[in-house]
Structure of Histidine--tRNA ligase:
Amino acid sequence: MATDTKPKARLPRGLVDRTGAELVATRAMLEKIRAVYELYGFEALETPAIEYTDALGKFLPDQDRPNEGVFSFQDDDDQWLSLRYDLTAPLARYVAEHFDALPKPYRSYRNGYVFRNEKPGPGRFRQFMQFDADTVGAPSVAADAEICMMAADTLDAVGIARGDYVIKINNRKVLDGVLEAIGLGGAENAGRRLTVLRAIDKLDKIGPAGVRDLLGAGRWENPEAKSGDFTKGAGLESAAIDRVIAFVEAGTGTAGLAKLDAVVGESEAGKAGLAELREIAALVAAAGYDDGRIVIDPSVVRGLEYYTGPVYEAELTFEVKDEKGRPVRFGSVAGGGRYDGLVARFRGEPVPATGFSIGVSRLLHALAHLGKMETLAEIGPVVVLVMDRDRAADYMAMVAKLRANGIRAEMYLGGSGMKAQMKYADKRNAPAVIIQGSNEKDAGEVQIKDLVEGARIAADIADHAEYRAARPAQFSVKEEEMVEAIRGVLERRAAPSLGLDD
């Protein structure tokens, strides 16, 4: 029995193929984001997808192979390399390497794929795209305020209506002050502090009662029945839990800041964080962004440990349905904060930096939910049908003329007849086809079939004979009028298929 040696066509888990329609939608959105970043004076930077593992800071020295969520391998001189897991660590390496040559502050934006060696699941991929903007070398929280304003302008630009999003700002120094006040300062409490952070981060999903459980003994997946998985809590005393809950429920704006004064107590870090938040609030108000677009919100914590000051999230506030049909808020599509220690890993001295990252696929998904992309189908090329095989040169000349006039076009290059060619044009989402048989050639004409209008008319024609007689949306023009006629068809289809300009 012969052995089948053919490779099996299969996609690795956690990865996805992206086709023309999604790529066109993504490109349109990326250009709008890029335009806002450049309006703010940020310049483009591209770093490689591969970095030395120790530059990323993701390695375990007690194991043979680096782990902790990155894809790693060794080069020919036994150096460990890894696929980047975000766009911030490579920026820190780049700035440290070119520090003396760069203007300070250094303002850059980057977009590209990042990679996570984690177990994939619903909505969790091993490769996904981010679009970042960062300011390195600016110690003032004015840089943080500006980043938040730019985030708001970006969501405006891609089509998220005001009222459907909010940029929330907190400060890790304030949270550090609260943790110090309840006795969780110092390196020996790092594990419990992380548990507290994770508990607070789940506030939107499980509410204050759920967070209270996670700050105490722990929480069942189904609390009422005490069933399902059990998550061990931080083990805080009741008074400490009350203080953390008071922190996350302080509320937004200046009223919330006033409540936080009592929560942080005498902590110097906490007081410094509150002063920075008040300064950011004043800057935001001066620029006119305090109209609900940007708010101070102590519930924002951000999970990464390298944040050292202000942290922020862009949250979409409109409702969608979960897998059980229940209304839920869409949630975060971008986030970031101040990280004054990342570049310092390379230079041995503090280098202030702040920035944020947009989850590209998630933001695109949000636009689809809002009807900002009425269809993800890309407008395909005009297709010139091949009616006479010995006249390929004539058809190629038509295609060249259309392209020379800026019209996307192709000649059918398959071997099938007219019916199959029309099906091909439909699959290509062609706005129109051009038909020239021998009769049209002798008359110096072409037939143009508007496929979009034809489909609309045909939907109202039930009888096949009537359909053939009507030849919906098909008309003849002189060859020299072909370009203008096709332009007319395209103009009738001018309503943006991506809906990003609404």
Summary: The domain at 382-492 is CATH 3.40.50.800 (Rossmann fold). The chain has three domains: 20-49+84-176+247-369, 183-235, 382-492. The two ends are 62 Å apart (CA to CA).
